Prior knowledge:
17 helices; CoA-Trfase_fam_III; transferase; CoA-transferase activity
Amino acid sequence: MAFHPNGPHNGPDNRLQGALGHIRVLDLSRVLAGPWCSQNLADLGADIIKIERPGAGDDTRAWGPPYAPDAAGRPTTEAAYYLAANRGKRSLTVDIASEPGQALLRELVRHCDVVIENFKVGHLKRYGLDYDSLKAVRPDLVYCSITGFGQDGPYAHRAGYDFLIQGMGGLMSVTGERDDLPGGGPQKVGVALTDLMTGMYATVAVLAALTHRDRTGEGQHIDMALLDTQVAMLANVGSNYLNSGKRPTRWGNAHANIVPYQTFACSDGHIIVAAGNDGQYQKFVEAGGRPELARDPRFATNPARVQNRDVLVPLLADMVRERPRAEWIALLEAVGVPCGPINDLDEVFANEQVRARGMEIALPHPTAGQVKLVRSPMRMSATPATSDKAPPLLGEHTDDVLRDVLGKTDAEIAALREGGVV
């Protein structure tokens, strides 16, 4: 039988129908990696209590513009960056530097299954909010620490940022145009991929730790590091290096081992052509009216095309440039050559498949009227992910959490406010 020491978490924000409706999370994290993890858990039904600094809150509340507009189109103070990672949570403001604030959080931990934090190594120990201190309060606690470099090692004391880790962890060494071409050189990925992947790995680790707790009653400390995640997500590129000893190079939008497998400029935009075998390549050039490029022995096989890519690719580029993007996609789809557009975000959110899957959502919001967000991609038949609560205002749920979770009276809450604790 599953071990649930707290039982179901009752309260106005509880969603017992969700897969994690019985789980409550104390979220001490801010910016992106930690909030991305807790937002995943919120989408799955967990009750997330987001702890924020009084008067300021999560750093990303100030990371604008852009800000969500109100009904009249005027910008509010709700930064779009903050909105991206905080839906489905309850915001509680607490001064964790004060002893009463620390005592309040320890009291909350007794009612929580998980703590997520992304402070520098050792920072929370001074407040009695580190894993060992909180484990004494709740022995079966799952405590997830997210840092740049982990809890040990020579870099443990350093602050870690996504951009720095993309560089240190090798991602930028394989991202960007070839050094011998115009614009060549290392590039970061256009979104904070290392932060996001760390948040995803942290989500998996938290769920695994909860499963272990439910079987054994034992909690544990999860040590997540951005650098570890970045090295792990090198995937086949990292494996290729370890097993060959050869450093990979940047290929821009091309492929090291397949030609053509890259982007091409059409007369009105760009497409991706991914000809994974000789038959697809032959159909590609036939569709473009250049069948002789398949008969030429320099280009007839993929190894030959790789060897002669500097001759072939300019010829293909000239061929593709003669037609508009939509015509190329129609031609290549008709003959089974993998291809696709490079969409800007206008085109992404207007795409019929994206719209059919309901990826854009609008949620009611106290100051903006409504905010537009991206729905969780997790589709589950029995316990569907829910994205039904907008990211909270700063401290929006302070009274509710203190009253519903801790049973504080109105007089006690007023005293906490007067003392600057919340």
